[in-house]
Structures are given as structure tokens and as C-alpha cells.
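Sequence only, no structure available. Ideas?
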Amino acid sequence: MKLLIITNIPTPYRIAFFNVINRVLTQRNGCLKVLYAAASEPDRHWSIDLNEQQFDYEIVKGFHKSVAGLYVHFNPSILKKTKQFNPDVILYAGSWNMPTVIYSLLFNSFCNKKYKKIFWSEGHDGSRLHAAGIVPVVRKFIQNKFDAFAVPNQRSESYLFQLLGLERKPIILLPNTVDGDFFTKPTSWSEADSAIIKSKYSIPKDAKLLIQVAQIEDRKGIKELIQHWRKLENKFGYHLVFVGEGSLKDALIADNEDDTTIHFLGNQPKEAVRELLFSSTIFILNTKNDPNPLTLIEASYAHLPIITTQFAGNCNEIVVGNNGFVLNDFDFETFELVFLKMATASTIEMGALSFENVKTHFDIQQVCEHFLNQVEKI
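Reply:
I predicted one. C-alpha cells follow.
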């Protein structure tokens, strides 16, 4: 099988997945090609090494513009590139409303029907942005042209067919996943190792870390989390750590410089993020809107208990049993109660449950093999 993936930009969190997909396809006498609509987007602050990509890829020339906060890409040569590769299947990732996706989808729907067209959808009931007006009408028309949908869970499937009202199409299960080996906390990791990492960022060596890895933007619940944190009477020796960049960062640093338990570490390479996770005690993602955050999976591999919200699309797959809590509200009383429970619980045991869960359900090799098995049957 020849698989073509069309998506917006290269991202560090997709490289491992694409590498494994390519490896499995090669073992099956198939191949993968990825076409990127652009090299990057203005609000993406990560560092990425394209040499880590062990598959055929191309950044296609095109036109790029920011419209109402969205980054729009149009690549006229996408049809030519597709024809040259001549895939059996096209997996469209990124956004359904990217002009390049619409252009390719509609052309191949009416003029070249031999390609199987699959849309990788991670939306859910808590991430819908446009419920009225012309947008849902246009969306329904476009997305009904796909032959199948790849979704991470039942919640996303229900979103497509029940909430959006799309025509029933075949569903391919594709949980978001990461390089689990890279993020697995080694058994040799010690308190001394954690102390060294904390000292790099001027954090007290004996501090316990409540860490959030996310963009410093309003949709990540940063402001609410800080407000709740500052109201806590007893922090039980914890410090609140943010890893990431964003438009709110400088203002939040200035507003909270009087609180020595709050730390903004900026964007960090994945190796540093891994070390910070290993050195932390609890992971939190106080998001207001996240289709399927990979950071929850990374933190689980790092043996961390989880606090997140109902607006994380994979919250019910990540928080299972006694490894964490899912917040339904942003109020202080709920946060205080959950933090108190976590701060006085056995976080080591909770973190072990997180690890066992992702190792069982998010193993990257198994996810990729199962995904391709399903695609071959479409």
C-alpha cells in the first residue's frame, strides 16, 4: 500500500509516528510520503530536526496567510505531487478548512476517484468552535466527501456523526501516541537527578513540581490555574511550572514575579521536557479546548499522575481509575479539593497506573500496525 499524508506543517510530536508508519509499510512492501503545506506557522515555537524524519517528505511551495487568527495554506501543485506519487490512500491531517485540503479533496472526489480519502479528525464535543451560521453547512458539504475518518476514540466518532451530522462512513481507530521509549522514566532515575534538573532552572531542589507543558495561551487555562494556585493556603511544598511559549507569557511573568513558587521556563527541546517530566510529581493540563493532547500521554509514560479537564479529548482514555482526576469546572473549590487529594496521595502508585495504561493502549508500534490493518480493509 502506498500512503500519502497531506498536512499543514512538520511537528516534532508526529515524527516518531510517521517513522513507525513508514517502517511498518516498508515491511509490507508499501511506502509513505508526507506532503507539508508549509515549513512552520508563526505561533509554533518548538525546535525541530527534520533529519529525524525517516520517510519521504516534501515541503510544497505555496501561498500562506493569516486570516482571523487562522493560518491559511494553499499549494496549487498539490495535485501534481499527488499524481506523481500515485497513492492508494490519502490521509488528510491538520484542518478540514485548509484550502489545500479542500482543493485536493474536491478534485480527487470528482476527477480522480481511485484514491481512498481519509480525514484524520480529533475534534470532540468540547472543541467545537462554530455551531451556527454558514461554517457548519460548508463543513458538512466538504467532510461528506471523505471516504472514511480516522478518530482517536468514541468521543470523536460521536462528534462527527451525531453532533456534526455527517453521513455515516467507515471509522478507523487512530489514538494519538508518542515515542513511549523516549518518554519512559528510567528505573535508575533518582532524587539526585531531579535535584540537578531543578537547579538548572533555579527551582529549589526539595520542591515538588506540578508541571504543565503547553502553549502560554488563554485556551490552555493558564490564567485560571495561576489564580487558583495563588489562592491556595497550603501548597504542600509544591511549585507550579509552565513549559512553553505564547502571547500571555511576558504579562504573566510580570504579574506573578512576587510569587517564587511559579516558574515560566519557556520553550524547551524535547530532551529537556523529558527531564523535567522525570523530575516532576504531578502533571496538569488545565485546558479549555484540546482535541487530543499528546502531553498527557508523554506525562503518563513518565510515570506521572494526571490532572486535566473534560475539554481534553482523550481525558477519559488517560485518566482511568486512580491515576488522576478530570475537572469538569474551572472553579477554585474543585481545584483545591483535587490538589489536596493529589498532594496527600501516593503519587508514585498513581504514576505507575498512568504508565501501565498508556503502555497497554498507546504503544506506538501496536497503534501503527492496527491503523494500517484497518486502512487496508477500507
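The CA atoms of residues 218 and 341 lie 26 Å apart.
Hope that gets you unstuck.
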